[in-house]
Amino acid sequence: MTTHVENPFMLGLDSNFYLKDEFESPEKRTNVTWFYPKICAFQDALDSEDKKAEYFSFLDRQSHPEQTDILLYFHIPFCEAFCNFCACFKESAAKYQGERQKRFVQAMVKEIQRNARSKYFQGTKVKYVQFGGGTPSALEQESMAAILEAVHREFDLSEVDGISLEGSPLGLSKDGYIEMLKSLGITRISFGVQTLDPEIRKKLTIKATVDQVHQTAENIRKAGIRTFALDLMYNLPGQDDEVLAKDLAGICGELRPSFVQTYRFNQWEGTRLDQQIRAGKVADVKPSGAIEREQYRQIKEGLAGYGYDKQLLINFFTHLDDSGEIGLNHACGGNGYRASYTLGIGPAAENYMGERSYRNHTDVERWMREVEEGIIPIEQGRICSEDEVENRVMVFFPVFGSVRKADVANFEKYRREVDWLVAGDYAIETDEELTLTEIGRENAGNIAFLFYSDEEKARARRTMYLSLKNKRNPFHQDAQNIPRTPLFLQTRPKSAEETAAGTAADTGSAKTEGS
Amino acid sequence: MENRRTQKEIEDDLRAVIAQIFPGHRVELDSDTPLFNGGLSLNSTQMIELTLAFETFYDIELEPELLTTENFATLGSLAGLLEELLEEEVSPV
User: Fold this and answer.
1) B7-87 classified as CATH 3.30.420.40
2) In chain A, pLDDT over 70 holds for what percent of residues?
3) Using CA atoms, how far apart are residues A451 and A336, in angstroms rounded to an integer?
4) pLDDT tens digits, one per residue of B45-74
5) Could you say which of A351, A370, A385 is where a domain stops?
6) What pLDDT, on a 0 to 100 scale, did the predictor assign at position B92?
7) Interior/surface letters A139-163, b for 16+ CB within 10 angstroms, e for the rest
8) Does residue A290 belong to any structural domain of this protein?
9) Where are stretches of biased composition, namely Low complexity (chain A) (predicted)?
10) CA quadruple A178, A482, A476, A401: dihedral positive or negative?
């Protein structure tokens, strides 16, 4: 029988079914939650100007609470080439060259100004800035420079801990690109290596060559960028233990970044890659839940062997004794120590402002048009329930590996789940802290779901249902460039009449009487 | 669907629908067979895909609130839910 690794968007929506019963099942290990609560284009649509005006009235009426930190996130959705395993929202960089790219940059600058000049953000000292995507380095140098200059001009960065940018060797290896980033204050660069095996890279349509990876790492080092991070994936098709050992040696031993970020491979059902893997066209070694668990352990051991034994976040390792301020303490709302709000700018950027959680339009053209017309370019937003706001600390604590009880508003509210985790050796509870054990860290994604409210689980199920029904990607609900076609869209289910007719034709007898 | 269908007939319908959309799942489906763990081993994406498939089959729409693990626990529980829904469909208002 075919077994599937659980869809990471959905696992754990009912803890009785998915989590506690088969917590360590190879098929039931999932991603850590990085966004909570998720918002939904169908349930949280801001589809009238009145609704939007009311929702965003806080921008011009209030100042942001002094006890919170502000992070800026910029989503640059363009990629020079699409890797076939990636489910992030992205657009073809080739479509946005010349005048179209200029128009995009002007819209970015305008959205930066609109927010920075609002009462809410005036005088706010930004604590961290991150550029993600897509691939920010797919922008031309002058475009990226224009956006960075606007950030420096419009926001107060006098107390910023760092400015981070995700890139690709395709853009970063261009003459002068890294130097330009350095001159405009970028302190951290990361890019996805994923694997150094040329054959697997080809199958996964990763366009940058291994030589470009090495050259880019060297250039980042030479430019004196304070820190740089590389992504390593595991459980890739064809990536057996030997290949993974070589990847570890190449990344940790030769490329030697400050940080290594690990990501599991997600085989999205119904994608072309999924079909190719199932048909045995990609590699003899197919991804599986069992391999994923084994390789997670192999990676942790391997990283430690190369000195990357400091686990700063669940997937974030370093060999540095003192990594300095790199924004991790602001991740996921700040782990309760100090609340961190995120302002997202650009298409599909997500925002979290206390009880407000909202997302920009995923359609680049619509996002640009609305920014140009002075309309807030938001397609969905919700006022989170008290439960959701309160649960955030516990939903995100697996990302950090521990949480101080004093930082949880109502720790005893979670007593049943905490006791279950402790009894199962997934966590250790002291008077001050709740800390995941090694096996707890291995199941960090599943543990996060234990702390979703029932309401949130029901909402997530509705999001999935409504997304698939409306033929949208269930995560972003965007209609473009997400390589996921649900099975039901590929083989349309038949009505009772069609089934009966088909059965009659096949066997000469009607199967469903009276239909 | 104009005629009222019995739970047993609905279970047969569901077996046909499941065979059609999940051809790789070769499991004997009794009334008590769990649709999730230890039975058909559907995951949550497939739970939704199954829903969309039987909606098309019966030309009905499910209220998203009914997507509970209790309703989808076994073939029998799902057939029971559908029997109620189909009865509402054919009952005169």
Assistant:
1) no
2) 87
3) 15
4) 778 888 989 998 999 988 888 887 788 889
5) A385
6) 54
7) bbbebbbbbbebbeebbebeebbbb
8) yes
9) 498-515
10) negative
* Alpha-carbon gap, residue A30 to A446, rounded angstroms: 6
Closest CA in chain B for residue A499? B57
How far is it, in rounded angstroms, from Cα A83 to Cα A57?
A: 40
Largest separation between any pair of C-alpha atoms in chain B: 41
Distance from CA of B65 to the nearest CA of A (A): 7
Give A41's Cβ-side CA count (13 Å radius): 23
Query: Nearest CA of chain A to the CA of B61: how many Å?
Result: 10
Same structural domain, A316 and A208: yes
* Angstroms from B22 CA to nearest CA on chain A: 9
Better pLDDT: A249 or A66: A249
Which chain A residues in 22-81 lie under 8 Å from chain B, judged by CB atoms?
22, 27
Contact A493, B56 (CB under 8 A): yes
Residue with tokens 């439960």: A387
Instruction: Name the residue facing A2 among B1, B24, B56 (closest C-beta).
Output: B24
First CA to last CA across chain B, in angstroms? 16
Among candidates A461, A493, A515 on the partner chain, residue whose Cβ is nearest the Cβ of B17: A493
Residues of A in contact with B16 (CB under 8 A): 499, 503, 511
Q: Which of B17, B27, B52 comes nearest A1 by C-beta?
A: B27
Ranking A126-135, A156-165, A403-412, B25-34 by mean pLDDT, the lowest is: B25-34
Cβ-defined contact of A487 to B36 (cutoff 8 Å): no
Q: Are residues A316 and A197 in the same domain?
A: yes
The answer to whether B44 contacts A11, with C-beta atoms less than 8 Å apart, is: yes
Query: A468–B48: do the CB atoms touch at under 8 Å?
Result: yes
A vs B: CB pairs below 8 A: 110
Does residue A193 share a domain with residue A154? Answer: no
Query: Does the distance separating the beta carbons of B45 and A464 come in below 8 Å?
Result: yes
Q: Which residue has the tokens 């006022």?
A: A383
| A194 Cα to chain B: minimum distance (Å) | 26
pLDDT in tens, B71-84: 888 999 999 999 99
CB-CB contact of A197 with A243 (8 Å): yes
Using DSSP, state whether A92 is helix, strand or coil: strand
A423 touches chain B (CB under 8 A): no
Query: DSSP class of residue A421?
Result: H
The type of residue at A240 is D
Nearest-Cα residue of chain B relative to residue A473: B45
* Nearest one of A55, A165, A185, A164 to A120, comparing CA atoms: A55
SS3 A45: strand
Kindly report the backbone phi and psi dihedral angles of residue A222, in degrees, each rounded to the nearest multiple of 5, phi listed first: -60, -35
Q: Is the model's pTM score more than 0.90? A: no
- Among A47-61, A119-133, A411-425, B29-43, the minimum mean pLDDT is found in B29-43
Structure tokens, A3:
């077994």
Number of domains present in the structure of chain A: 2
CATH number at residue A222: 3.30.750.200
> What pLDDT score was predicted for residue A240?
95
Cβ separation of B13 and A512 shorter than 8 Å?
Answer: yes
Question: Residue A374: which region, alpha, beta or left (left: phi > 0; alpha: psi -120 to 50)?
Answer: left
Contact criterion met (CB < 8 Å) for B36 and A18: yes
**One-letter identity of residue A299:** I
- Amino acid at site A114: R
